[in-house]
Amino acid sequence: MDDAFTGAERDALYKAIFSRRDVRGQFLPDPIPEDVLRRILLAAHHAPSVGFMQPWNFLVITDPAVKARIHADFATANEEAANQFDGERRDLYSRLKLEGIREAPVNLLVTCDRERAGPVVLGRTHMPTMDLYSCVCAVQNLWLAARAEGLGVGWVSILHESALKAILGVPERIVPIAYLCLGRVSHFESTPELAIKGWRQRLDLDDLIFRDRWDNRDSPPD
Ligand SMILES: Cc1cc2c(cc1C)N(C[C@H](O)[C@H](O)[C@H](O)COP(=O)(O)O)c1[nH]c(=O)[nH]c(=O)c1N2
């Protein structure tokens, strides 16, 4: 088969998947070369999308003044978020670094234009959120391509959607999907930071797989 991956190509793909990390605190200030940024956006643009709708846009942010405004909204939202927890959990939450907005050389807002392909979209009629999920596929493509390029990505969702839209001039009909911080990094952690810091551990895959019916964990046939 001509289009089969070689062993090395397959290993490279899994390496990108398993060594991808959400990066918050390890950003270096070096600018991202335009050709590299273009490649990772092209990877995002080649994501699957419902009805081939391609509902995404990519808003690239490098102006420190704009980043500062986004960060100010993060600070407010993060305080509100911390108040959702009590006692030790709240102390631990407050010690977590959950964004790299100002340190990352590039911030990127991935959005969804729900009207991109007209009112009726192949595949969206019965599951209307599929256009939003298509944009998340683009984010994941971007995240993996960035890892292969040696760039870290951090997803920041501790933001008020209305503030994000107002600061960035996003039109009413456009939905913000992912606010991302991108840049070269000092290092990639080998496991998620939330696991390292004791917030939450990776679940056991075997506990998540059902067979034929919800909750049926019968072991697979040999
Ligand atoms: C939709 C969504 C939203 C967020 C995240 C992820 C996703 C998918 N993550 C990153 C998240 O904490 C991280 O992916 C997990 O902890 C697993 O770690 P790795 O991504 O494997 O390093 C994240 N991280 C963070 O520090 N601040 C945030 O606001 C968010 N928000």
Automatic annotation (TrEMBL):
Its EC number is 1.13.11.79. It catalyses: FMNH2 + O2 = dialurate + 5,6-dimethylbenzimidazole + D-erythrose 4-phosphate + H(+). GO terms for biological process: cobalamin biosynthetic process. CDD domains: BluB. Residues 18-183 form the Nitroreductase domain. Pfam families: Nitroreductase (PF00881). Signal peptide: none annotated. Keywords: Cobalamin biosynthesis, Flavoprotein, FMN, NAD, NADP, Nucleotide-binding, Oxidoreductase. It is an enzyme of class 1 (oxidoreductase). It comes from the Bacteria. GO terms for molecular function: 5,6-dimethylbenzimidazole synthase activity; nucleotide binding; oxidoreductase activity, acting on paired donors, with incorporation or reduction of molecular oxygen. Belongs to the BluB family. PANTHER family: IODOTYROSINE DEIODINASE 1, NADPH NITROREDUCTASE. Homooctamer. This is 5,6-dimethylbenzimidazole synthase. The gene is bluB.
